[in-house]
Amino acid sequence: MEKTTDKNSYTLLFAIGMVLVVGSILAFAASGFKDKIDENKRIEKQLNILYAMGVNDNEGSDMSFVSKDIVESEFKKYITKQFIIQGEKVSEDNKAYLLDLKKEHALAKDANHQRRLPMLIGEKDGKTFYIAPIRGKGLWDAIWGYVALDKNMVVLGAFFDHKGETPGLGANINQRFFMDDFIGEHLFDEANNFKGINVSKSNADPKNIDKKDNEVDAIAGATITGDGVSAMIKSELRLYLPYFKNLKN
Amino acid sequence: MGLLSKKDARLILDPLADNNPITIQVLGICSALAITAELEASIVMSISVLFVLGVGNVIISLMRNMIPSKIRIIVQLIVVATLVIIVDLVLKAYAYELSKTLSVFVGLIITNCIIMGRFEAFALANKPWQSFLDGIGNALGYGVILIIIGFFRELLGSGTLLGFKVLGDPIEKTGVYAFGYENNGFMLLSPMALIVVGIIIWIQRSRNKDLLEEELVGHCDI
Q1: Which of A102, A239, A232 is nearest to A170 (CA)?
Q2: What are A217-240's pLDDT values in tens digits?
Q3: Quick check: ipTM above 0.90?
Q4: In chain A, which residue's Cα lies nearest the Cα of B76?
Q5: Which residue of B has its CA nearest to A24?
Q6: Is the dihedral of CA A135, A140, A141, A146 positive or negative?
Q7: Helix, strand or coil, per DSSP, at residue B219
Q8: Closest CA to A241 of A42, A87, A52, A69
Q9: If we measure between CA atoms, which residue out of B145, B124, B159 comes closest to residue B42?
């Protein structure tokens, strides 16, 4: 005799029931945790931005963000202005750091859309930091970062992160040995052409003494992620060139 | 093992050695190759699989008399996927840093054939408690191998363990690097993980001749 569980009708009902149950559990969980997760993401952005401008708890070669309890007040203290740049128009917006770059990238595919660029101004120890959030593609998924520049577009600090690069290889772009190399690097070459910073496997400068070579040392086994970082820096920061040009005039 | 009967204890101990999911059944190879460039990642992955396999086995076992056999594979996939998504959401809400470390593993856990393999081969036919032990045992067996591979790959490939520079600094030429030692960058790439697995299988089979097959049978890994 056929078992009940082998019947087509039972199979169909079971499938429908399972989809309904699992679907509601997941929908319920996702909406229940949404606020909390969004808040975590917002705090993370503030931590990353502060990190890029050198506000962190790094000790020796350890890497550490400022404490989460004080991030809100530190962010208010150091980030003095936030702008959204759209073409010629520069408007102040104190939520500029929350601008979704993924959406901006998608919108930018439409030729009529002028891309909006977030720009954060930080002040620390009498120095002004121009912090640009950037986003690009790694090997598996998105990579992004925050680059703090001075008004000549020399890097004062950088923070990179990724969604799903290979652990031990590409995932190391968020480690200090990689990020610290960017400090002091020039985005322009000697002839004043915009070059970006190349993550290079052949720069023969592993200690990164030459800061004007537009190159930092790559991570072994992470070629595509490294190329992604180079491409991201070049294509995203290039968009800020008019802004920095205006700054000088 | 006063707590467990002899039979139950075997459920945990067998997969650790003579019936190891990686070295004997050759399951879960993909993740063993993909994420073992660092010891820490190996440990995190082992713990994640431990949780998903333990809980998943119990859920499948509880539902074993209800699941229609025609769609059982899909049902198993849904159980794994749901578990993994819920864990991911909870971590994102309450342990954000940890969730970031884990994010890359989420997809890999769902496709890990050990999990599907144990659901199919054990949980569908056994009671929840035995299924739980079987899940834990297999996850531990998987974890042990992952950690061994991660240990050697990180040590020989990067000269570090859990991020600590145990062999000295390759750029400043301290520690063993002072004597001309170089990191083997090849260890960081997946082929070396396969070779390390091969060496473990070799050692294991040469110590225990019972494990040798009389003739090789083709095997398909997801």
Answers
A1: A232
A2: 998 889 999 999 999 999 999 999
A3: no
A4: A18
A5: B82
A6: negative
A7: coil
A8: A87
A9: B145
The sign of the torsion formed by the CA atoms of B123, B125, B131, B134 equals negative
A163: tokens are 């969604």
- Which positions ≥6 away from B90 have C-beta within 8 Å? A29, A33
- CB-based contacts of B54, cutoff 8 Å, min separation 6: B132, B135, B136, B139
As beta bridge partners, residue A142 has A137
Residue A219 DSSP label: P
B contacts of A206 (beta carbons < 8 Å)? 171
- Taking the model in full, what pTM does it have? 0.71
Cα gap B157→B163, rounded to integer Å: 12
Task: At A77, give phi and psi (nearest 5°).
Answer: -70, -45
* Tokens 């640009």 found at: A132
Chain A residue numbers touching B103 (CB-CB < 8 A): 163-164
Tell me the pLDDT tens digit for each residue of B155-206: 998 888 887 888 887 777 787 888 888 888 888 888 888 999 999 989 988 8
Q: Integer distance in angstroms from the first to the last C-alpha of chain A?
A: 89
Considering Cα of B210, then B211, then B216, then B220, what sign does the dihedral take? positive
Residue B215 in tokens: 């003739």
